[in-house]
Design brief:
The complex is a heterodimer of chains A (about 525) and B (about 725). Chain A is mainly alpha-helical. Chain A is built from 16 helices and twelve strands. In chain A, about 45% of the residues lie in helices and about 10% in strands. In chain A, the strands form five sheets. In chain A, strands 10-3-11 form a three-stranded mixed sheet, with no helix packed on it. In chain A, α8 packs antiparallel against α11, α8 packs across α12 and α15 packs antiparallel against α16. With about 725 residues, chain B is an alpha/beta fold. Chain B has 27 helices and 28 strands. Chain B has a seven-stranded mixed sheet, with helices on one face. A six-stranded mixed β-barrel of chain B has the order 23-27-24-26-25-28. A five-stranded parallel sheet of chain B has the order 12-11-10-14-15. In chain B, β6 and β7 form a beta hairpin. In chain B, α5 crosses α24 and α11 packs antiparallel against α14. Classes of the chains: A mainly alpha (about 525), B alpha/beta (about 725). Chains A and B meet through α1, α2, α3, β4 and β5 of A and α2, β2, β3, β5 and α3 of B.
Amino acid sequence: MHTASPVKQDHSGLIVEQSPIDQFLASQQTLQTPVAIFAREHESLLVREQESYQSLIPLTLPEAGRQYAFEVDLDRCTGCKACVAGCHSLNGLEEDETWRDVGVIQGVNPQGAYIQTVTTACHHCADPACLNGCPVLAYDKDPVTGIVRHLDDQCIGCQYCVLKCPYEVPKYNEKLGIVRKCDMCQSRLAEGEAPACVQACPTEAIRITTVDIPDRETVPAFLPASPEPSYTLPTTQYVSKKTIPDNVAAGDLHFPRVEHAHYPLVFMLTLTQAGIGGLLAAAFSSLSQQAEVPTVTSAICLSFLMLGLGCSILHLGRPLGAWRAFLGLKKSWLSREIVAFGIFAPAAILFTAQQWFGVLPDNLNVSLTLLTALLGLTAGFTSVMIYVDTQRHNWRLTITMSEFGMTILNVGMGMLTLSLWLSSSAFDASGAVWLSIAALAFLLNIRRSALRSGTSPDAQRSQLLQGPLRQRNQIRLALGIISIGCLTIGLLWQPWFIIPAIITAILGEGIGRALYFQSVIAPKMPGSFRQ
Amino acid sequence: MKLPETIHGLLRQFDGPLTRDLIQEPGKFDLGKVPARLKPDAIQSSICGYCSTGCSLHAHLREGVAINLTPQKQYPVNTGMACPKGWEALRVLDAPNRAKTPLLRDAHGQLKPVSWDLALRTMCERFRSIQQDKGPDSLAYLSTGQITTEEMALLGAVAKFGMGIRHGDGNTRQCMATAVTAYKQSFGFDAPPYTYRDFEESDVLIFVGANPCIAHPIMWQRVMRNRRNPAIVVIDPRRTETAVAASHHYALKPKSDLVLFYTIAHLLCQQDALDHAFIEAHTEDFSAFRSFVSAYPLERGSQETRLSPEQIQTLTALIGCGRRVSFWWTMGVNQSHEGTRLAQSLINLALMTGNIGKPGTGANSITGQCNAMGSRLFSNTTNLLGGHSFQNPGHRTKISRILNIPESCIPEVDSWAYDQIIDGIQDNKVKGLWVIATNPAHSWINQNRLASIRKQLDFLVVQDMYADTESAQLADLVLPAAGWGEKEGTFINSERRIGVVRKVRRPPGQAMADFDIFKLVAHYWGCADLFQKWELPSDVFNSLKSLTSGQACDISGITDYGFIERSGGIQWPYRNEELDAGTERRLFSDGHFFHPDGKARFIFEEPRPTEESPDPQYPLWLLTGRGTSSQWHTQTRTRHSDVLRKLYPVSCYIEIHPEDAANRNIQAGESVMVQSRRGKIRAQACITPSVPPGSVFLPMHYAEINQLTLDQFDPYSRQPSFKACAVTIAKTFS
């Protein structure tokens, strides 16, 4: 180690003694010659080690109708979490990337406290939600092994699979701009090696088995206190000789967490919905011929729409691959949304151009207007369905429809009122309708965020809105009040107050959309308070 | 979608740079497949630097630098396994807050980078002037179980023989001192008798105050490999992970354990479930013990432990009838106000039933830190190097002769223990303190007291890998140390196995191996000549081998580090191949103990109440312990791995039984106040039936919790009793 020479030559060529500090500092930087331990020395051991894993992995490929699956022996899992760290190192994941997790379920049985740690990773589902939701078909379920594999180079980083999977399996990697996930170490299995987690578990609690591929008629039992298995048909087998009490609950049940806000999506949804609302209003004006549609309002609405669509690109980790988004049309609502907006946008441009230049004859104008309105509604509906299809309780159809619909109605009525005012028509009637819509939206928001006790997703959501998200929720409600106030003033005294009413309405809806993402209770495998 | 293949290939990319980022290739060296990006050109084994299990890890090297790490498959301790801390051992070396230069507190009270020369001159000048003014008691050092044996020995020799520092102790006082004292008194030498194979060969495993599932997961692996369908008994007030995994859990009242084991001893006598031949041939004082425990009938045991008579009888039957019974304990026993007698009550049970020296038996203390066992034998603190005694003239002569150090340099008195050094600071006796690789500002019991007396120290030196530990922040001088993986030497694990740690990384900046720092301190102090022949750690190791000859821990038969590595680690004693063959050896198979008469002692004493127990004002027991397997002690290292950080709660939490929470209207997740007579802290409420009603649990890894603990000590081992004081909890601060 201390090989540094004790003497050195100074600048004048004289030999001077090196200080002990210099010597030691130099020796710190010297590494030992690595003692390479060559494979030959361990050939016999290699055979033995491979053998020791043989009982933990299948020796043959699954027959038709069957697939590989994780099997977790709960009685052997003690929560040491070596599987998490082993998976991380043996797969060479990014510093903060983990594909496995360990949680806890707890309850009380006649013998006393029941506490069980649970290791979990991808369940390689029979009907994978990630795969069904992916707009670019970046998931592949191997027809032989059943392993659900993510195609990293196909991924555009839209993260819809993150929202779709009820088990928090796909993990978004900010640096790479894609999602990655557990592939059951398929390349290891292919050569008779055990997956990383199987190798790393000191108590042999994890193994790979072959199971019948479940279908909706034969949904197999799954871990209690976990998301309903009928959604994706997970294949992981949790086995235990102990009786799991009925009252068992996830260790993190009482600790709802604030989810990611997805700001590009917040802007995209708010602006496109504002645009749709405004364009619908313009279409209505145009069709009803109650007033000249001021070109300026339809131009504003078109720019909302285009800006919103621009924001959606910011959400993608790898937008250059987005041209493939039509691939998932068959199953993915995200594909459908992208296609719907892709058709709606040119229609909206034509419609707005028509408002400006008026080149089309009347009959074509009516057709274009109707078509634009219809495409706008369709596009808005696909946005709704993206979230409804995640099966998250707080994003169910009625809620999402009313959230998104209120934005469309609110801004739409605002724009209609503005148009009427700008074209010097009477706007009292539309203003009154708008006022009641805005008031209704406000009351709905108050009702939904009122604190409720309990552990239902709606109650937990209200706890988030009254807890960590309280300030933001209050700002949203305040903006609602200001908007209603401005509108009232606009109707009764000063018409130009319609403008701040519209601005505050859009801001309020924007914050509402952020809360829509942040306060959702995402289904997940049982976590641990101790995390 | 059925499309011609070319179009299909264009539409769906199954391969590309991102896919190849995770591609695996055979890693050679028996590693199986490894990420191609991280394929090593060589591997080097090294013993893990966290706990005392002593797992061997394979550093994957490229040009000598470790780029990845996997547990070593062919090592008798861990057979290819590691806990998350081990897997992440390299990651924490890259932390940005590593100490990279010496830091000296300037006139404005700021720690500022200085040269090594200035740092060492200042340290030696300040220490020397304190020593000259205040005498030999005025300097002390607090060492650790986290550095190599060679470093401990060099530190102990430089400080005591070279610098004349009379008082030195280690953080091992907080974890192992009780086991040391108990073994010394009972067996005649500090000699944990077991080998890990005993986990696999036992029929009844009794874990007392131990949670190996979390604290020693790789030892638990051995329990799970037991094919004898054993009874696994956990004696712990909490329903720990280990209690859940066990076949029997006895949730006794906190601090009633000594009564329980005396009761069981009495019942075993009553039922004559004794190994008379063994007792007669190999023990002393059994009849006195027998009559002592006759005062512990079943009714008393049941009443005081709050276990039912049936539970105690079942437990007695398991011990009395089991063919191979082994007793295992950790901090629940060691960190007790009567820990020494408690450990000995387990030793007594093993002795009276003849459960010692045979496969699957033993009274077995599981150690804490990676090199606590090295510290016990070679730190030159409580013992003179090599398990000798400072007070024994013959021992002093022997050490002086072998090390070629004047006998006059060797102190004739024992050091003060850790708590006595702290008292010495309070009493203005100790004015200069040198802290090495430990974090007393976080870990020492009744923390506020230590904080309040810091200003009474004239000069505090903290030597650590990280510049931001709670203790480094208080220092006058911080010395930047290399960490595990950046230096070489040996550790000794729980089962007495010596293993080698190797240098596989370069330390950052000007950080230096502790070994070299001690050499430099000796140089600046002017005593380097005494240690001239100790140029490298291996030179120290050679001296230590000679020192042990004739001792219970004789390792004179080991040739060098390479021999240790080739042997898969070597348990002490190792005199030569004939006497000490085999990779897994236990002590006392011949029934011969280390007292001069060769017999073990029955040692016992009336239980005493703790200085503090729950009362109306502070109605709850505060239990403390390890939180998760991904946290280590004061978290100076483990908090620097993203993966480990994901696996534990960021801030302090308190476990409360549902009844206690309901009585106080405390909701899960809310922040509550926890108060003892010494301090108050905030913690997030975790409502769980794993703690018994009337007790709460705080994990030791959060800095604030030792504001609450009570500084009381076992009188024999001077180990702090971290696991018993009285607290109250409420929703808000009063």
